[in-house]
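step: validate -> pass
step: tokenize input -> pass
step: predict -> running
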Amino acid sequence: MKQVIIETVRITGISAEGFGIGKLDNGKVVFVPYTAPGDLVKVQIAKSKKSFCEANLVEVLENSTERENPVCVHFGVCGGCKLQHINYSEQLRIKTQTVRDAFERIGKISTNGMSDIIGCENGYDYRNKLEFTFTNRKWLTNEEIASGETFERRALGFHVPGSFSGVLDIEKCWLMDESNAIRVGIKNFALEHNYSFFNIKEKVGLLRNLLIRKTETGELLTLISFFENDKEKIARLMDFVQSNFPQITSLQYVINPKANDTIYDLEPVVVKGNSFITEMLGEYKFRVAPKSFFQTNSVQAKKLYDVTKDFAELTGNENVFDLYTGVGSIAIYVSQACKQVVGIEQIDAAIEDAKQNAALNNIENVHFYGGDVRLLLNEELLQKHGKPDVIITDPPRAGMHEDVVKTLLEAAVEKIVYVSCNPATQARDLSLLNEKYFVAKIQPVDMFPQTMHIENVVLLKLKR
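step: predict -> pass
step: emit ->
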């Protein structure tokens, strides 16, 4: 029988993944979820490696002054909000430190001139997109299992972290208020009328996924994904949703009989309204369809783009290249402050959205190209549009490909504005760019309170 090891630990920090960090008596570092800096905790060792170990929280012996009561009943099981037990000002301090640690340890970059993090006014109800999963095998919590009771196993909620098939039934999600009544209403209708819920292992069941998107302009999009094409049951559910939730401005459904949940290769059926809703960022409109790539916190997205535009120091005459442009939101946002923008994006569907968004705003000085940034950012493109004065880059979490970094060094433009959702890979790329560039400004922006996710904007200037 495996020995149960219980230790008492003082938590002194938080890792980039959101785990509390402490040290055992033998000097080994231990990572403990759902703890706060200053906590004195009793933990059970779960995994022990050579230089560190992972542990589960058994009991909080002494509360940190930064600890507060989580508002959500699902906290600790649902993986969406890992920091609800820590007050927001401390969350901002932790995220700031995460950026500092990444820059100083990975990139060997000084953060002395870093600006204070831009926080979010709403700690909750800030997401404009949520995706829920139907299941006929609801995830049971330890308390539910211990109760010995029999539970309704059909559920609608979020995937449990680390589980392929586990779905936690959600009573209320605090990240988008508008989603709760719609989700609960659809689930209850389905239960009352004995609709089958999806079984991901056996690949059977009618109801598969629910997507809800909203805009700051008050529009609401709802899409239901069905595994089976039962026209009668689909029509009845659509009628129910239309009648009971008139606030939905775009109601759609899609039939997805595939092995995976993605709908990017499927065409939704529009039941009510348009195939999209429209978001405003500043003076610019953006079409948001079920499959659109768009920042999931609209309020903070505007702040992020304001910082990006400010860092670019545009005067109206610049030639700007926007790498990893997505749906063209940054390119469009800065377009009227410069001569022209060239946007590059690998995902074809995103490029189509970008072109539509430019047309929607009557913007003619933006040119979008679909393809791999490392292949398209070449001499031919430079000859066609001229050498850029400013390059804005907003790569995925993995950061920029080393070939892209090499091309940026060869291009030697005056300014690079680097927007990142991963300070660690950003710091790695900056250390490579250090050959010709110095860091002039650093501005973290909190896009997702209650989580460890953070956006960071850096202005790089060419060394003289």
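step: describe -> The two ends are 66 Å apart (CA to CA).
step: cleanup -> pass
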